[in-house]
Amino acid sequence: MATEHTLNTLGKIASFLQGELKGPEDLSITGIQALNRAGPQEISFAVNPSYKEAVEASQAGAVILPQTWPYPISRPAILVKDVYLAYAMLAAALNAREFCAQGIAEQVTVGHNCHISPEVTILPHVYIGNDVTIGNRVTIHSFTYIGDGVTIEDGVTIHANVTLYAGTHIGQNVIIHAGAVIGSDGFGYAQGPSGHVKIPQTGRVVIEDDVEIGANTTIDRATFGETRIGHGTKIDNLVQIGHNVQIGPHCILVAQVGIAGSARIGAGVMIGGQAGIAGHIELGDGVKVAAQSGVAKDVPAKETVSGSPAMPHRLWLRVASLLKKLPEMEAGLRRLQEKWKE
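The structure assignment produced for this chain is given below.
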């Protein structure tokens, strides 16, 4: 993959993004920045024509624009099909850093029968239990707890204060942000004659490849079997995922989403912030759940739902519109009741 050392001219960047170059190939580019902050040797971007004035006022040396840009282009530019995707790819490439193994710090505690690659960076005050396996190019930041029998595959980055309970499996190239807790007990109790009886949680959590888990997110271990997060799924901060939940590949879960136990989430599902998903229901592939929705029953594939209780989005728009009119409708109804009495 191209890196910051090779993407140093406009021509190379255009080739990397597979875009149409409008300007000199040899124009020097040192970084990417927002339109209002970019300098003459930086490239910026505009996702749609509403940024016309910002593009014209910018000091950026070049800009990334959509292929459908309707205005005259007065500065070096690269035209692409999807500007936001191009920005993401270029920013990732320009900020890429080669892994440099620093080994295991002296202040790290390592248990018995562990298999740790020499190509790792494990910073001070990490605790590693027994029978742990850690692959190549893994970075583990300080004050992380790794329980017995945890497996961490190649290319993983674990930030500070993460807790991985016993038996957790972390796939390749996973990123786990600070404070996340993976593998804690699922919330399961039976009602006994003298109080709640805890149901043992004997399963584990499996995180597949290329998943990113936000800060202070919690993922509970299964009662039996596995709680599983599919490859490529991205989870925001402060998300709660209950026991035995199955999440498919390439999903997006925004902050403060809560998913109750044994829910099944299909591939490519998008769940907006503060939405709640009831237990033992299924969201089909490609479902979209609007923010603050409460989903209490199955949702078929590719449907978009909103509201609480969640309903098809178009229906929710009508309901929301009527909600604003309820005081007026109530007043009218009272007037009709009074006339009827008369």
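Interim note for the steering committee: The chain has a mean pLDDT of 95. Residues 36 and 57 are 8 Å apart (CA to CA).
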